[in-house]
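Running this now, will post back.
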Amino acid sequence: MKFLIPIDGSASASHVADYMANSTAWLKQTPEIYLLNVQWKVAAGNVKLFIDQDVINDYYREQGLAELAGARAVLDAAKLAYEYHISIGTPAEAIVQYAREHGIDQIVMSKQGRSSLQSWLLGSVVSKVLHLADCPVLVMK
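Update: finished.
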């Protein structure tokens, strides 16, 4: 079974990795775990005129690896194999696209605590993933 865990570097996202590490015993086979970090695109408009694309790519990679570090440490300690990927774009759309491209069986993600105003203005990543995903989505508090 293939599990996708979107990781944003928050403590609640690391709890999802803990859950997966502690829940693999009930599975009949070893799960395939995919960690995904989505970086918001910062290089828009004229930014590329002033900052080299390699510098921008390095920034995305450094930020993504930093945000994935906690989840990777948990899975490493549990001796669970995983793959990780850093994507650039809008989080909900990138999560769903990655799940489709990799034949993910279930997305396991944390519920992000946003203020009412932010949720109303921006919409939550979780609700967008629930709306767009073709596979089951497990949302953890």
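The chain has one domain: 2-140. More later if anyone needs it.
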